[in-house]
Each structure stands twice: as structure tokens, then as C-alpha cells.
Amino acid sequence: MAIPIACVAWTVTLEEIFKEPRSYCLTRSQEGKSLLERKFFYLLTCEYCFSHYVTIFFLFLTDYKLLMDDWSGYIIAGFSLVWIANIYMGLFALIRQNIKKEKVEIKIMEKKVNK
Fold first, then answer.
1. Distance between CA 66 and CA 78 in Å, rounded?
2. Count: domains in the chain
3. Quick one: residue 67, left, alpha or beta (phi over 0 = left, psi -120 to 50 = alpha)?
């Protein structure tokens, strides 16, 4: 379940498709009048913070519990899923960074060859 959590959190907070709402939230997080307003909108732009909300949604949707069948199973599952989802997002960020670096290096090599 951590993979779909990571996917949703990454897409909403970092991908181009949600650029406009994210820009609005980022502006409000920096220029909001109250501390509460700034922090609320920041939570919608940070992939780590947003993954907590996505996890709560998925726990509610699936009724998933970890280790215990009572309310503490939700808490353990929630923190575990957030942690794993953020590991996935970190790995994905590293992979994307390497791909971008390789593309830049290829363009530089192509320019050298074409001269």
C-alpha cells in the first residue's frame, strides 16, 4: 500500500499536472497572514507532509491495521506506511536525478561530436 501512497503524494506535490494549485498553496504558505494559514498550505506542498494525509485516506479506505486489531493498529500502520512511502519517493527522486544528469551529459557529448 506504500507504493500508491507514494505515487499520489509525489504526483500532487511535485508533478506538472498539479502545478497551478501547488503554486497557489506555495504562495499562501509563504504570504499567509496567520501562522496557521501558512502551515496549513505548506502541508499541501511538502511531499513528506502530504503523504500523511494520503496515508490517512488509504487507511480509512482499506481499514488496514498493522500488528494490532484495535486503534493502535491504525497508528502503527500509518507511521509505517508513511516511512516506506517516503523511502520510495526518495529513491524515485534519485533515479529521476540520475536520468536528468545522463540526458544533459548526452547533449553535451552530442554537441562535441557535431563540432
1. 9
2. 1
3. left
